[in-house]
Write a structure and sequence with these properties.
Length: 221
Amino acid sequence: MSVKQKRVLIVYYSFSSQTNNLLVSFSQGLEEGGIIVEWEQLKPIAPPPFPAGSYLNALKMMVLAFFKNRVAIEPPDIKKSDTCDLIVCAGPTWSYHPSGPMLAFLDNYAVEMFQGQLVQPVISCRCYWRLHLWEMKNALRGAGIRFLKPKVFPHPSPGVWCALGIFLKLAGKMPKSCRSLFLSHCPRFGHSPQQIDAAKDIGRILANRLLEGSLKGEILE
Ligand SMILES: Cc1cc2nc3c(=O)[nH]c(=O)nc-3n(C[C@H](O)[C@H](O)[C@H](O)COP(=O)(O)O)c2cc1C
């Protein structure tokens, strides 16, 4: 007798490739664990440029994100969720909130697409993710969705240097005068190779739990 393979749908947005890098590795772990993985990328109608090109544009983007500015997206393929056993909803934190494209998705499509499903949140961030998660859950309350405990990936560089690094990367600028000082504290932007590897292990563990039917203990109240 043939056993139906489990399917995981990854719905995601990634602005500067960090979430995407994690998900590539995470999905390999799922696939190695015997899961069929499908993807749905949230695509802004007018994608914000990366980098933003100037300090002012970077600042503007952060301020708009702070006020939860929605970034309109192309309609996703809602039907993709019909045949899946689990949905991964992944993306970066922007100024404490879900990103602009994710907010647009939550407003317009997520209830219909995620209705009654089990959802695994995956968050890529510098360090602040709790409000992001709460807002995501809040936007979907009443839709019969069960959330698993989030998989959170904070950038590994220390506090203020990481924040400065993200701002400079977003602006696409690096002042020559403080370049070496900066790089000595924040040698790389984004997630470390170790985190990328860990994402694969996390995917493999999730695959096992999904196949065993033992995800109940991971569900958030
Ligand atoms: C406009 C903007 C605002 C951000 N605000 C936050 C924040 O409030 N808290 C945080 O932890 N990270 C913040 N970040 C950092 C991103 O969450 C982080 O760099 C993430 O890894 C980016 O993922 P992505 O490349 O998939 O878009 C912000 C990044 C941008 C571009």
